[in-house]
């Protein structure tokens, strides 16, 4: 089975609009019939389980992996970090993976600039396909849109993804 996926990252510093931009990208692709997966990098010790719930009790009892499933969804919680490429590999049947964060991974990126002190991110990251900026900014070789110009940003992303998929979508 061919499980080719297009992958894009949305990176930026805190409060740059990463989550909002990821959600807009996901919504637009889903509206067009794409199967989209997402991955969110969290720099903190996030918690998705709730103290006292059965799965939390299983974990507290010592289970390294806890799964919960129902008719409509499944979650697997592992007590270990997982490399980004392994998360991507697990997304069977997904055509596009939208990744929020992981600034220094080597996938095509949209870089969000909240203010001029964020400009170092353009120099520090690789594979930048577009920049969305909150302030007037131009780059000599990378397309730049204002953060409020989502339709223009989506066109750049869509053209890239279509090209990656060989125009088969």
UniProtKB/TrEMBL annotation:
What the entry lists under Pfam families is as follows:
MobB
TM stretches of this protein:
none
GO MF terms held by the record: GTP binding
Q: Name all Molybdopterin-guanine dinucleotide biosynthesis protein B (MobB) domain ranges.
A: 7-134
Q: Which GO terms describe its biological process?
A: Mo-molybdopterin cofactor biosynthetic process
Instruction: Give the domain of life.
Output: Bacteria
Name recorded for this polypeptide: Molybdopterin-guanine dinucleotide biosynthesis protein B
Organism, as annotated: Ammoniphilus oxalaticus
